[in-house]
Specification:
The complex is a heterodimer of chains A (245) and B (88). Helix content of chain A is 58%, strand content 10%. Chain A is built from eleven helices and six strands. In chain A, the strands form two sheets. In chain A, strands 2-1-4-3 form a four-stranded antiparallel sheet. Chain B is mainly alpha-helical and 88 residues long. Chain B has one domain: Arc Repressor Mutant, subunit A. In chain B, 66% of the residues lie in helices and 0% in strands. The chains are: A alpha+beta (245), B mainly alpha (88).
């Protein structure tokens, strides 16, 4: 995308005083990034400089944003992904209200950053934004989760499944219900890949973006998670294809 | 299909149970090369034990895929309106 230049900070040099008889001078604009950096370092905002008898000050102007291009890019890359974003948000928040808030947060962040997006793999880009937004939300709500996320998530999973009781898991004979319970009993890092890949239908790579791990880790976790589900079904006596799993 | 693995077995006529067990999950996710997948499929037809093993995991995958929750259309409509608000 070629919109980067429109986002550049403009530096405007303004002649504040002129020597008598010289008359007003036009402001000099330096919008080139190199000039901007040089001007910033050698001539900070708020200072004044006397040049050949002229008193010159510098002020920063607001970034120039091409709102039309911003809206077009948002409509092209973000709007078609809203439903997928909501589904993923439902998976990672497990709460419809939080999911909606998370998608709104993601959309706002995407809108602000859309002119710096190169247009490739919008879903992966949005999932990365969503992941960062979710990390910030978790940090605000449960700061301990950020110190050791895996251990903390396992503890949370234990808290979540503590009220199910082993009897309830064993007694349930209906297959889908048993699978659901097996998924619920998984540690968070395994449940997340099952939710994203096997339930929501994301690719390994897309799941890797949202979780923030390499694709190979997603595959490994997914395979281990399915094995755990199978073992869970065995222990609960669920049947598949006319035989115990 | 984003990642394909040949596992160095492309030119071998057959695969054994051990090899099938090793790539079973990738096979279920359509993540092995087409010709190798064909060899696995052929093995699965001939080997009852491996066939049942794959079917067990297929059943789990089918059950999981059916769990995809219905999305509340009102929530999607609200999010679309939100998108229109921030771009207007």
């Amino acid at each position: 995308m070629g919109e980067h230049a429109s986002d550049a900070m403009c530096v405007e040099f303004v002649v504040e005083k002129t020597l008598e008889g010289l008359g007003p001078a036009s402001p000099v604009k330096a919008s080139h990034a190199g000039e901007t950096r040089a001007a910033r370092s050698s001539f900070p905002t708020g200072t004044a400089l006397r040049v050949n008898g002229l008193v010159v000050s510098r002020r920063m102007t607001e970034p120039v944003v091409d709102e039309k291009a911003q809206k077009e890019a948002f409509d092209r890359y973000v709007v078609p992904e809203i439903e997928v974003l909501y589904r993923v948000a439902r998976s990672i928040t497990r709460n419809p209200t939080d999911a909606e808030d998370l998608v709104q947060d993601t959309m706002l962040r995407a809108y602000r950053a859309i002119l710096r997006f190169d247009g490739r793999h919008p879903r992966a880009w949005l999932l990365t934004i969503m992941r960062n937004a979710q990390i910030n939300r978790v940090r605000r709500k449960r700061p301990e989760l950020l110190r050791d996320p895996d251990a903390a998530m396992e503890r949370l999973a234990d808290e979540d499944s503590a009220d199910l009781g082993p009897e309830a898991l064993v007694v349930e004979q209906e297959y889908d219900a048993a699978v659901e319970k097996a998924v619920d009993a998984l540690p968070e890092k395994f449940r997340a890949v099952i939710e994203l890949v096997d339930i929501q239908g994301l690719s390994y790579a897309e799941a890797a973006e949202i979780i923030g791990v390499p694709t190979g880790t997603v595959m490994s976790r997914l395979h281990r998670a399915r094995t755990r589900i199978r073992k869970h079904l065995e222990s609960s006596g669920a049947y598949v294809n006319g035989r115990p799993t | 299909m984003t990642v394909r693995r040949t596992w160095g077995r492309r030119n071998r006529p057959e695969v054994n149970c051990r090899e099938v067990g090793r790539v079973l999950q990738s096979y279920l996710d359509n993540d092995v090369e087409e010709d190798f997948a064909a060899k696995i499929a052929s093995h699965l037809e001939a080997c009852k034990e491996c066939g049942l093993e794959v079917e067990t995991y297929r059943q789990i995958k089918r059950s999981l895929a059916a769990k995809m929750p219905e999305v509340d259309p009102d929530a999607i409509a609200r999010l679309r309106s939100f998108g229109e608000e921030i771009t207007s």
